Amino acid sequence: MLRRFYEFIIRHSKLIIAVFLLLTALGLLMKQLIQVNYDINDYLPDDAPSTQAITTMENEFSEGIPNARVLIKDVSIPKALEYKEQLSRIDGVENVTWLDDSVDITVPLKMSDQRTVENYYKDNNALFSLTVEEEKDVEVVEEIRNLVGEENAVSGGIVNMADARTKTLSEVSIIVVAAVVFVFLILLISTNSWIEPLVVLAGLGIAIAINSGTDLIFGEVSFVTNAAGNVLQLAVSLDYSVFLIHRFEEELKKEKNPKKAMVNALTKSTSSIASSGLTTVIGFLAMVMMRFKIGPDLGLSLAKGVAISLITTFIFMPAFILAMHKLMQKTRHRSFVPSFKKFGKTVSRITVPLCAAFIIILLPAFLASHANSYYYGSSKLFTEESRIGRDAKITEDIFGQNDTYALLVKSGDRSKEKALSDELHELPEVTNILSYVDNVGNTIPNSYLDEKTYQKLNSDNYSRMVLSVDVPYEGEEAFSLVKKIREIGEKYYPGEYRLAGNGVSTYDLKETVTSDMVKVNILSIGAIFIVLAISLKSLLVPIILILAIESAIFINLAIPYFSGEVIFYIAYLIISSVQLGATVDYAILSTDRYKENRLTLDRRKAIAKTVSDVTSSILVSGSVLTIVGFLMGIVSSNQLLSQLGTLIGRGGLLSLLVVIFILPGLLYLFDKIIIKGEKNEKNA
């Protein structure tokens, strides 16, 4: 059945090529229609309290929470009011809040509450809180910066998003181009034809273009998927086409007819390529079970990408390789890859001692990998050396790391609102509250207010209190305050209040992603174990393979702990699934070759020959994943993407080293059980 299918593919090779070229063109066109979301908080679960609060506020109020801060240095109050007017006229700025919204500035400021005054005006520096439409973030931030000049500062969540949007697009292009150049050079060295690297890259490019276009089914993708998806698909799918070409060349030595040789190559290689791809797909699909939606976003795109790469390998590549066959033959050259025979013998002598040393460091690595310090939100996306980092630091140095929360309570009882506000004022972290009962009074009828002022603070169902809080966007201090405010809200309005804000969303993000970790790890390990157990017909071998790669993951995640680096929990969460799914193939290849070599050799010689046989292939695949990851780490100004790239690059390198130096020792030590299982399988 499979053979007939491949014969059909070969007979209609021109049609196949035409169809895939058409799909590629469509993919490139559809990719332009996909929106990229740069707001981490949008990926919280729908049932997260902060998500529900934001939804309620969007339904009830026309304005959102302030998401930008503008600092004007050395300015008088009249001049500050002029700036406020100019900022409010910018298209996309929904609201500008300043000192005059909280106190009467027609009387001497010394007579007003100094804590409130210093939230907005301090040492002749004015700080404005702005609410900016997300859809116009780039244009608005650029216009604000033009208005206030380089000497002043613009910061906040919307500014982070705008900078991420503008910088990531150009940085992704640099990463992709550099990755393609590197892959081309690696293939040039590791293959036997000058044209073969171009053939492999063409197939990969088509698969990536089709996958990118089909992401349109999601409507939008996260900035993580947009930045990492294509290069990760390139890195993990590289082997499929290379393996098929090498099998085709082997079959040509037995069958002179290229078409028949290709059918033979496809028939013999389908099982190994498909099983390799399946473990990778399953590793990525495990991320779909995350409640934090960036996991499903990246996981589905990568799993779909690997599946499309497999389809491209089995359908497009045979037709394309045959079309390029004569040119590939004419441009053949000697292999530049050195022999690894001596290296294999060396590894066979030291692998057991290395394995023993490795086991000793495994427990500390495991414990350290689970003891890191984390960033959960987007407050540290950019370094202090960047424009946005510099502006944020200038603002924080003068006014502190203030955040803004919005507390919505059921309307109708002004006396209860006043009691709630009074208790919130007792919290030392709450520096100001903008609300009806604070700024108008609970005894003044609603009809005395103009419509615009009333709608800022009230809707048909809710009253809104805007809290200025003297805490950073995230950290234990902020998280503790969120819990306190929620407890007070629950006390006065049980089940009927809503709390939103940057720090609130980050708190919920922390609660969500930490609960995802164990679940996703168990699912990814369990699913890959089942696939390996079925394909290898063994229970012990999958345990050895997964243990080897998981050990590399532990070491990868232990390094930040020992170096004192704070890591983004999102990167920490994603890397476990990505590294396992992307590199378990190395271990499968080594184990398969070892079992094959043990049919004719003793275990020491089998180890030496296995290392000699697989090192070249593993180095090619592992080096691509490593370089692609480190490229992302170096090029990305977004610290989350940079850190994720570094973890991927380092993880690829560690998995490569574990498979080459440590796994052979494990195979050697468990040889009797592995080979006994093989014999039992054959006898059955």
Key phrases:
five-stranded antiparallel sheet; alpha+beta; 8% strand; 684 residues; four-stranded antiparallel sheet; elongated; Multidrug efflux transporter AcrB transmembrane fold; Alpha-Beta Plaits
Question: What would a concise description of this structure say?
Answer:
By secondary structure, the chain is an alpha+beta fold. It has helices at residues 2-11, 13-31, 49-60, 77-88, 114-120, 137-148, 157-190, 196-214, 223-252, 258-285, 294-330, 341-369, 387-399, 414-425, 436-439, 451-457, 476-492, 502-536, 540-563, 569-597, 603-635, 639-669, 671-683; strands at residues 35-37, 68-72, 93-97, 121-122, 125-132, 153-155, 220-222, 374-375, 403-410, 430-434, 462-469, 498-501, 567-568.
Largest sheet: 5 strands, antiparallel
Helical residues, percent: 55-70%
- Based on CA inertia axes, which overall geometry fits? elongated
Estimated radius of gyration: 30 Å
Give the C-level CATH assignment of the domain at 1-33 and 191-336: Mainly Alpha
Please indicate the percent range of residues in DSSP E strands (runs of 2 or more).
Answer: 5-15%
Poorly predicted segments: none
How many helices? Answer: 23
Number of strands: 13
| Class from helix and strand fractions | alpha+beta
Distance between the termini: 26 Å
The fold-level CATH name of the domain at 1-33 and 191-336 is Multidrug efflux transporter AcrB transmembrane fold
CATH architecture of the domain at 1-33 and 191-336: Up-down Bundle
- Average pLDDT: 87
